[in-house]
Amino acid sequence: MGRILKYGMVGGGVGAFIGEAHRKSIGLDGKAILAAGCFSRSYENTLATGESLGIEKERLYEDYTEMAQKEAMREDGIDFVVIVTPNNAHYDACKAFLNAGIPVVCEKPLTVTLEQALELKSLARKNNLQF
Length: 131
Prior knowledge:
Elements: E1 5-10, H1 17-27, E2 32-38, H2 43-53, H3 64-73, E3 80-83, H4 90-99, E4 104-106, H5 114-126
Parallel strand pairs: 1-2, 1-3, 3-4
Helix pairs in contact: 4-5
């Protein structure tokens, strides 16, 4: 129970308000640390954000699909991901991580359609993941 969880973040790069709010909230109890990210569609923004947060460059990704695949294969991969992208990008990002076997926390609204939300719920259950 005393283990520190490692998490990743998709979205929330330099200039985005909500990412910082989530990072502060997650860090309040000291039980999770940010270890990986794809903070922006701009890789330069991701690199700048990651550097400012002290994340190793090898764990800063150009897109969330690459991040999901590579983190799932790492022995020290993330324990969960937080999705804080614009609303219309939630579905695809969540799906990539659930398919990779990584639990997901998603900013609201979960998706833009009920059908997308139900599909993600089903995928999480099928893969026995917290979502």
